[in-house]
């Protein structure tokens, strides 16, 4: 059983219970802190679909940060952990790791205050104006050169900052956002042809290729599972 709570900042807390693992999770470009059996790991920004691991004895608990925010909390270039699952202690300062673990551990004991995690999330949202502006541009499919000129001065510095802040390039962010919109449209019952056109894919084969890489299924399979 899976449930999640979206915070005011757009980040989310989630819980998974009684899962043996193997469930397919679409790429979303986010970074998650994951608590299982007292251990906290970092799931780096995902740029392809992945399969979940089995839940711990009390379940699995996560703090999901919107794309482009986690670097401010962890203090490392996110390209180093893209599509990886690594121990929290291996990727951030000892003091930061201790603070995050202290905030996460109570979730394993049952209903617990989320004030500390919500505060972390609010701080990240306030400090993430650059990355949020990039995400808005990606939603509108603004060309990278135009975004770079507006937000970073040069395309080279924009590429470097994207890799450090998001863990992947701007073109990948556009693809992730487009796939997210396509999934939402398929869930609502739109036809595959309509989704391909409205989400900005060149044609249905393009949509299918992207879905198999990012979502782990064909558009038809995804639509059937969401029905």
Automatic annotation (TrEMBL):
Keyword Transport: no
Signal sequence bounds: none
Gene3D superfamilies linked to this entry: Homeodomain-like
Domain HTH araC/xylS-type: 146-225
Assigned keywords, A-Z: DNA-binding, Transcription, Transcription regulation
Listed InterPro entries: AraC_XylS_family_regulators, DUF6597, Homeodomain-like_sf, HTH_AraC, HTH_AraC-typ_CS
Pfam families: DUF6597, HTH_18
Protein name in the entry: Transcriptional regulator, AraC family
Organism from which the protein derives: Plantibacter cousiniae
């Amino acid at each position: 059983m899976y449930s999640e709570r979206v915070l005011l900042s757009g980040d989310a807390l989630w819980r998974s219970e009684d899962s043996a693992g193997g469930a397919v999770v679409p790429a979303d470009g986010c970074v998650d802190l994951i608590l299982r059996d007292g251990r906290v790991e970092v799931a780096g920004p995902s740029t392809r679909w992945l399969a979940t691991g089995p839940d711990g004895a009390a379940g699995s608990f996560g703090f999901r940060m919107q794309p482009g925010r986690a670097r401010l909390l962890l203090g490392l270039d996110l390209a180093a952990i893209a599509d990886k699952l690594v121990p929290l202690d291996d990727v951030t300062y000892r003091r930061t790791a201790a603070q995050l673990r202290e905030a996460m551990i109570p979730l394993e004991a049952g209903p617990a205050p989320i004030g500390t995690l919500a505060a972390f999330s609010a701080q990240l949202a306030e400090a993430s104006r650059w990355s949020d502006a990039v995400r808005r541009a990606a939603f509108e499919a603004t060309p990278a050169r135009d975004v770079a000129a507006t937000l970073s001065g040069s395309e080279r510095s924009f590429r470097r900052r994207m890799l450090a802040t998001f863990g992947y390039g701007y073109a990948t962010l556009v693809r992730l956002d487009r796939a997210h919109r396509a999934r939402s449209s398929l869930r609502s019952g739109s036809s595959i042809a309509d989704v391909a056109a409205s989400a900005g894919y060149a044609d249905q084969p393009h949509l299918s290729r992207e879905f198999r890489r990012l979502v782990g299924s064909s558009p038809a399979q995804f639509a059937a599972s969401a029905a």
